[in-house]
Amino acid sequence: MTKQSSENYRKLIETVKTFPPMPTAVAHPCDASSLEGAIDAAQMGIIAPILVGPRHKIVEAAKAAKLDIAAYEIVDAAHSHEAAEKAVLLVRQGRAEMLMKGSLSTDELLGAVVKKDTGLRTARRLSHCFVMDVPNYPHVLIITDAAINIFPTLEDKVDIVQNAIDLAHALKIDNPHVAILSAMEKVNPKLQSTVEAAALCKMADRGQIKGGLLDGPLALDNAISPEAARIKGITGPVAGHAHILVVPDLEAGNVLAKSLSFLMAAESAGVVLGARVPITLTSRADSVHSRLASAAVAALIAHRRREKAVTGA
Q: Do 47 and 96 belong together in one domain?
């Protein structure tokens, strides 16, 4: 990892450490990696974890990782499905303001989140954002959606874009530049993503998407390279200076995010938005920096929501 690729995350983590630790329900942290991620975030002062899962498995994972978890509450659950349900219940009871994925599948956790009567659904569709710290890019780069919505409709993309804009606001990007990506810059009826990009931009003009500046369709090079945008004669504040990249579908987003990670040594933090609370989805392949940054991003969102509830903003 280069110095440049960690600087944005270091600033992010330092910022969130100035707030009180955010109460967080950690669902099924029953292996060394997931438990260590939660405890690392707790020791950094980012979260105050409540560990939810089979008590004996959590204790065994702590011993394997040589972690002292005596200070942390454990809510016993028989298995991973029950752990997900009890973690969600902690949020509904107001005891937690974040969810963190442990060693259960994403489907198990989100299945509990989206249950109609007992989950954490809102009017918004759930979507995932990667917050990428890319070497030599001047600021963090948000990529969405590369983990949940496989083939999002235009209606889905309205929520995906709005969720990403709200995330950017939590990161103190007041008027984020949103690039709606496709393979070309012109609207082509034969390529649906270009049509939907144009529609999203017009919807933003009419106030159906708020808080960001949209442009699209844009190819990737024109979204992130001022020189590429200049050569192609694409003007406007978004071209070459995007904060948010909205991909056409999950496959494109997944390839883009992993290409940046493995070819450009970028670090990636991940958060799910659209529920009552932010949700972190960590992976055993994530670096310590990435796990801490994921927790920090979610904590910033939770703190912003807490502030808005107090001020009514």
A: yes
Residues 85 and 145 in one domain: no
Cα distance between residue 297 and residue 279, in whole Å? 10
Ramachandran region, residue 236 (left: φ > 0; alpha: ψ -120 to 50; beta: rest): left
CA 242 – CA 218 distance, rounded (Å): 10
pLDDT in tens, 4-28: 446 788 888 888 989 999 999 999 9
**CATH number of the structural domain spanning residue 270:** 3.40.718.10
The SS3 assignment for 219 reads: coil
DSSP string, 226-253: HHHHHHTT--SSSTT--SEEE-SSHHHH
The pLDDT score that the predictor gives to residue 308 is 80
So what's the pLDDT on residue 1? 38
168/209 same-domain check: yes
Residues 174, 63 within the same domain: no
pLDDT at position 3 over 70 = no
Prediction pTM value: 0.93
- pLDDT over 90, % of the chain: 84
Q: pLDDT class for 80, splitting at 50, 70, 90?
A: very high
Closest by Cα among 177, 247, 241, 239 to 211? 177
User: What average pLDDT does the segment 147-173 reach?
Assistant: 96
Domain membership of residue 247 (yes or no) is yes
- Give yes or no: residues 59 and 198 share one domain: no
Q: Which domain holds residue 6?
A: 1-13+21-121
- The answer to whether 50 touches 29, Cβ cutoff 8 Å, is no
Task: Name the domain boundary from 77, 103, 121.
Answer: 121
Q: Are 198 and 159 in contact (CB under 8 A)?
A: no
Other Cβ atoms less than 10 A from the Cβ of 181: the count is: 24
